[in-house]
Amino acid sequence: MSHADTTFDTVVYVTNAGDGTIGSYGLDRQAQRLVPMATTPAAENVMPLALSPDRRFLYAGVRSEPLRALSFRIEPDGTLSELSSGALEGSMAYIETDRSGRYLLAASYGGSVVSTSPIDEHGVVGDALETLPSGKSAHAIAATPDNRYVFATHLGDDTLAQYRFEDGTLTPNDPPLVDVESGSGPRHFVFAPNGRFVFVLGEFSGSVTTFALDAESGTLSHVAVCSALPDSMALAPGMPQENIPAGDDTQRIWAADIHITPDGRHLYVSERTSSTLSTLRVDPDSGQLEFIASQPTVKQPRGFEIDPTGRYLVAVGERSDHLILYAIDPASGTLEHLSEAPVGAKANWVEIVAFD
């Protein structure tokens, strides 16, 4: 079946950093597979993706010179039309729109900065408005559900920054930082759908830290830590790649991505050294987590995403030539391997759009 044969109500987008492209796939729910639709040229080392809140625009961060964010209009058939780009003052490991869709937030691992960029009424991102120094190795950034505050992880300092956010401007909150377990390397994070908790993945510990979110003050308080790896997984604690001595081939924890189902009951984590996906059960009322299972997946799974219905998960690997489509069991959270589809070189990021 080709794209010309059908119209899809859900489309998956994947960045291929090695090819400089974005792949588009239609989700065929009847056949339970992803159908390749198109390959859109982007730029060398295109990596993080972000969707506008109305799902009409897709943004891509380029981590090669010139550093910039690309804007694409998502057409009714799911194909992409490039609009323009805005300059970024750093190689951004993560981008995300604010909740209004008027600003693009970005975090730079190598530059240890965060930034905000304007998005105009046509969905086009402009040059960065402000670029601020952050803690060491900023890695992810996102606005709270009410859009009044912003958090950013500092992988190198084991902290999260807490900002007030107004008219595209970031101002340190009081307190400006909250600590994460030493040596954990906070990387990506997600909000609980009910807005009460934030779950932070430790790249070097393979654990998930739960924070309670005070919506009024925009501050976080520590709740608990849960390992996202099985006890049988024989991996040493991770560390920044630049700190690993030459010739040291120790198998170390290298967690990558984290996502939660729309009902807030299951959390998933990818680990790159073992090439696995882990499932955790979430108590929506307490924020407590329970490790359930871990299973093999694509080689070096840097990115994955859950579709808006919570029924499917798509995972890609930087060292894999294919992606995997999984079905999510709503009761147990179990992942069932459904099918595979080809990807480009160094596939690393996934976004999923469901059309009305």
UniProtKB/TrEMBL annotation:
Keywords: Carbohydrate metabolism, Glucose metabolism. The keyword Nucleotidyltransferase does not apply. SUPFAM superfamilies: C-terminal (heme d1) domain of cytochrome cd1-nitrite reductase. Pfam families: Lactonase. Belongs to the cycloisomerase 2 family. This is 6-phosphogluconolactonase.
